[in-house]
Amino acid sequence: MHLAALxxxxxxxxxxxGPWATVGLILIIFAETGLLxxxxxxxxxxxxxxGILASQGNLNIAVIAIGCFLAxxxxxxxxxxxxxxxxxxxxxRPDSRVFKQRYVDRTKEFFDKHGPKTILLARFxxxxxxxxxxxxxxxxxxxxxxTTYNIVGGFVWAVGxxxxxxxLGSAIGSDIDKYLLPIIAVIVxxxxxxxxxEMRRERRRTRAAAAVSAxxxxxxxADLREAVTED
Length: 231
Description:
- It is a single chain.
- The protein is built from eight helices and no strands.
- It is an all-alpha fold.
- It has one domain.
């Protein structure tokens, strides 16, 4: 692989693999979803760029779509297994200097509440998609539930993004190189929208809950004043 790949430009990365671009793409998708060391890799833009290259005849769309789908699903299963096997023993002692039992409890609560949606949405969120399956394993999320949403999310992400790149590349034709970087920028922006929207909704829910709690406190205080006055 050439040093150009270090730029994390998806086109440079794929070009650096030469005739092994398909294999390189599939391995990167696996590393990003299954190995914690792959959290910095640009999976979304790589899939999209792979689809564009396939539209130009440089790659086989069926091979990369199916290969990346399998790599994404298997990668998440590996991440889940790592979290499931290594996580619980690591967090078992409450007096651990680094990890606390309450971290596991919070993880369990988070995945009990947002589990399926998190596994699906995490596919489109850089970094989060690397750690979500591991946390699901640590939190002991039901494996069948995880696998179901893993397969659905893996298909929508790996196949959907790759085919989208293929369709756009076919529509634009030879001029696609002019629009490649702006398109990738749009993909990056769209990928961070779901967590931002969810964070905003969570803040609203938190404020609403705080307002209700304050109202309850005022009501209780009023009742107490009444009781004291009557006495």
